Amino acid sequence: MLDFLLGILSRGFGDNSLDTRKIDRNIEMLNNHTWFKDIYEDEKYHRLFFVNRNVRQYLQSTMRVKRMIKKEKSQRVFLVFLSKQLKK
């Protein structure tokens, strides 16, 4: 949660461009895990990984991605985040 808040704060002060290679690398790392692969291949979420700036910015953080790999709670937080992005 702290990462998410820091990400929001830093967007207001710094560069808000996205590093596509880093995001793609992080998605590739996550795709090695069944829980993520199921989400990634789900039609209702799949498009978000390519067009939603918030989702791509979330996945740009390697530290956040590694935490999702290690902690089930971070995985649940990510799924809630994706669900909220669907409603936008």
Describe the overall structure.
Helix 2 crosses helix 6, helix 2 packs parallel to helix 7 and helix 7 packs across helix 8. The longest helix has 15 residues. The chain contains 8 helices and no strands. It has 88 residues and is mainly alpha-helical.
Question: Can you summarize this structure?
Answer:
With 88 residues, this protein is mainly alpha-helical. Helices cover 81% and strands 0% of the residues.
Task: Give the SSE map.
Blueprint lengths: L1 H12 L6 H11 L3 H8 L1 H4 L1 H4 L1 H8 L1 H9 L1 H15 L2
Sheet with most strands? none
User: What is the first-to-last residue Cα distance?
Assistant: 20 Å
The count of DSSP E runs of length 2 or more, i.e. the number of strands, is: 0
Strand content: under 5%
Compute the gyration radius: what is it?
Answer: 12 Å
The SS-based structural class is mainly alpha
Query: Low-confidence runs (pLDDT<50, min 5 residues)?
Result: none
What is the averaged pLDDT score? 89
| Tally of helical segments | 8
Q: Shape, please? A: globular
Helix content: over 70%
- What order do the SSEs take from the amino end to the carboxyl end, as H and E? HHHHHHHH
